[in-house]
Amino acid sequence: MSAHYLLQSCKARIGVFAVFGDEGGGLVERKSQWGALFEVEDPRSKMPQCKGKFFDANQALEVARYDIQYCDWRARQDLLTIMLLHEKVVEVLNPLAREYKSIGTMKKELAELQEDLTQAHRQVHISEARVSTALDKLAYMEELVNDKLLQDRSTTAETDQASPSTSTATPSANIMKRKSPRKSFNVSGPVQPYHPHLKNFWYPVAFSTDLQDDTMIPFDCFEQPWVVFRGKDGKPGCVQNTCAHRACPLDLGSVKEGRIQCPYHGWEYSTDGTCEKMPSTRLVNVKLKSLPCFEQEGMVWVWPGTDPPAPNLPSLKPPPDFQIHAEIVMELPVEHGLLLDNLLDLAHAPFTHTSTFAKGWSVPRLVAMT
């Protein structure tokens, strides 16, 4: 018996089904029947270049459609890979092949093919997720286009009703009056620049307990890579997370005697960014960018702005009779106002987070406001 895989698409899902049949001459016939299923041109060469550009609604919709075509092509290639791997499994298990292959050789080949099949099936699941995401994006773009068309029609109708006498004027002038401002959509453009005043604040970047003498913590601040570590005096410092020599990320290296060492050529930097050691070369004056860094109340703070740092840091010390239950670092793709609202709502924790940090918490007492 042999198993072959077919693709079935239905709205936002891709299904993979096995079709079983007898081995023999029918395999060649079935492969010829399925040839049209896999002989699909790679759409990437025709996809419009959209990186860093602003498109209107119709152009953005076209990009989404090409995204769907690519996901479809990718899924077909994944299925073809599974079919070819399965044919290799059938070939290994063929009675004629077993006559001149040892059991050990067959086990090894089957194990390798099983790993390849597992990887191929994993890729199919990834393709399913990509198709679902692309279809959602396409539906969103179509909704935007429809809204824009309705807006254009309503604007045109209002213009016609407000000034019927001008319809006999110059046609080009009427068209210009009826057109609403073009909306643009940032498909994949660069991050917009931050307001300079936003950088002139102290920002907490790490817990003191996580920053040991021989450890370092990398982080991004205003789209710039930085790394904090402790110097010889035990105080934290923050330098640019890029070696001045060959731009290697310093957090891939190590901390030795209060200096961070690059894993590429061993250059070592102090907490103020000064390069104090250059193995295999003559020591020259090299210094990385650094940020003012301070430690207070269990947190490590940095000042990314250009103004002189404020003399006083915000206090994160809990009020009297409050207890710290957990110190957690999470990166969440969420608007900051929503996150603050969630963190201030302590009443939901004993009911929602019972299996994590709020396990065993009691329900907050009702406090009368006077």
From TrEMBL:
Compositional bias of kind Polar residues: 152-161
Keywords: 2Fe-2S, Coiled coil, Iron, Iron-sulfur, Metal-binding, Oxidoreductase, Transit peptide
Positions of the UniProt region annotated as Disordered: 152-186
Gene3D superfamilies: Naphthalene 1,2-dioxygenase Alpha Subunit, Chain A, domain 1 (3.90.380.10), Rieske [2Fe-2S] iron-sulphur domain (2.102.10.10)
Superkingdom of origin: Eukaryota
SUPFAM superfamilies (alphabetical): Bet v1-like, ISP domain
Gene Ontology, cellular component aspect: cytoplasm
Coiled-coil parts of chain: 96-130
Record-linked InterPro entries: ARHD_Rieske_2Fe_2S (IPR015881), Cholesterol_7-desaturase (IPR050584), Rieske_2Fe-2S (IPR017941), Rieske_2Fe-2S_sf (IPR036922)
A Pfam family the protein falls into: Rieske
Compositional bias annotation for Low complexity: 162-173
Name recorded for this polypeptide: Rieske domain-containing protein
Species per Swiss-Prot/TrEMBL record: Linum tenue
Source taxonomy: Eukaryota, Viridiplantae, Streptophyta, Embryophyta, Tracheophyta
